[in-house]
TrEMBL record:
This is Ig-like domain-containing protein. The chain crosses the membrane at residues 365-386. It is found in: Membrane. Residues 161-259 form the Ig-like domain.
Length: 423
């Protein structure tokens, strides 16, 4: 029963880690009562992940197993040596590069399960793996190295993370989940989230859980990360990236496009103009999926036309209505996520007849205005000219008086005395 449990676990691990096994476990290979069952084909896996090498053994009567030893060496070598140890029940004999990275699935050696899991794989782990069982035979220390081997090939990592995206609606909090490939109990990977811009990638803004580990069994773990954010219109049709980094500078990533259900909204630029007996209204609405626009007032009218233009996620609806009367206009927009309505402002323009009368009135008054202004200008000019003439006349009179004064002879007696000469 216990053996059946481990067989089930092994097949579960193969399927979960997506390792390619060319054939299932073959029949036991026996010699002198000692039997081993290994995978008959090459086990192919990927760097950064983990792999299970399935193995079962039975020993001859009288042999009590106490320790498991695994070696890795080149296929052409007949027997691996102590320098090739990758696992030993006595951990002191394991090189540091394998210590803790190679695990025995069932530590109870007496059960005959020699299966191992190798974590944090790299291409150097490729090779031929050979088993040795140490113990006591009839009370004396003994051991057996099985000649049969299993081959492991580690390729570059091609698996990508799995990103789960729930339905996204604008303004409603959502959580994305990224699960790293592999079900390994080795070193946990580093998981990061990024937005992909037009020219570069940049880290997301939002609440992230860097790593979450779920223990599926004693030797299997699933690693994941979550991103919680509130979607908006700017996230629509953008890409979000989940990047997983394993030890040894091994990375993989997955990019998903986000489709955000945008709430229907009525945009600026919507409104109405009434000219004479015709009312023209424009309602512009945006949303994803594209919204539909309806005009509730049309149920009470028959003389109208409606013309819609759809561009990307924007709908432009134009309504022409004859003889509207004194009404209010409501635009109703909805998509499968949201519905919105708005009363549009109506701007009334003058009719052509009223407009003509306005122009006639203006042009009738204009000549009188021009005549008045012209008369004022003429009067001002006449006054100014008269002022200049009068000023020049006074100035000339003053100059003439001064000249006459200078030419007149002074005959006063005072001057006669001064100029008298002695005889």
């Amino acid at each position: 029963m216990f053996t059946f449990f481990w067989m089930t676990l092994l097949f579960f691990l193969w399927g979960s880690t997506k390792n390619t096994v060319e054939s299932a476990l073959g029949r036991p290979i026996c010699s002198g009562g000692y039997c081993i069952t290994l995978n008959e084909g090459e086990i192919t896996t990927e760097a950064g992940l983990c792999v299970v090498i399935p193995c079962f053994f039975t020993m001859a009567d009288g042999f009590t197993p106490k320790a498991i030893v695994w070696f890795k060496c080149e296929p052409w070598r007949r027997r691996c040596g102590d320098s090739d140890i990758v696992f030993h029940t006595n951990h002191d004999k394991v090189p540091s590069e394998f210590l803790g990275r190679v695990l025995l699935l069932d530590p109870d050696v007496s059960q005959g399960n020699c299966s191992i899991m190798i974590n944090d794989l790299n291409t150097s782990d490729s090779g031929s793996y050979q088993l040795r069982v140490n113990g006591f035979y009839q009370g004396m220390a003994d051991g057996l190295t099985f000649p049969s081997r299993t081959s492991l090939s580690v390729k570059g990592l091609y698996q990508r993370p799995t990103v789960m995206v729930p339905p996204l609606t604008e303004g409603q909090q959502a959580t994305l989940t990224c699960t790293a490939p592999g079900l390994c109990s080795g070193s946990p990977p580093t998981i990061t989230w990024m937005w992909r811009g037009k020219t570069e990638d940049y880290h997301v803004t939002g609440s992230t859980s860097a790593l979450k580990t779920d223990n599926l069994t004693a030797v299997t773990q699933r690693h994941s990360s979550t991103l919680t954010f509130k979607p908006s219109a700017k996230h629509h049709n953008t890409n979000v990236i989940c990047k997983v980094s394993f030890p040894g500078n091994i990375t993989t990533e997955e990019s998903v496009s986000l489709n955000i259900s945008l709430l229907a909204k009525i945009l600026n630029g919507s409104g109405c103009v009434q000219h004479a007996e015709v009312l023209t209204c424009v309602c512009i609405s945006e949303g994803f999926p594209s919204p539909t626009i309806t005009w509730p007032l049309l149920k009470d009218h028959t003389e109208y036309s409606v013309f819609n233009i759809v561009s990307n996620h924007t709908v432009n609806s134009t309504l022409s209505l004859r003889n509207p009367g004194n009404i209010s206009v409501e635009c109703f927009s909805n998509n499968e996520n949201w519905e919105v309505k708005e009363n549009l402002m109506v701007r009334r323009e003058l009719s052509e007849e009223a407009d003509h009368e306005k122009h006639v009135s203006v042009f009738g008054v204009l000549p009188w205005v021009i005549a008045g202004v012209s008369l004022c200008v003429h009067v001002f000019c006449m006054i100014y000219i008269w002022h200049l003439w009068n000023t020049r006349k006074k100035k000339k009179l003053t100059e003439d008086q001064t000249y006459v004064s200078l030419q007149k002879r002074d005959t006063s007696s005072e001057y006669d005395v001064i100029v008298q000469r002695p005889r």
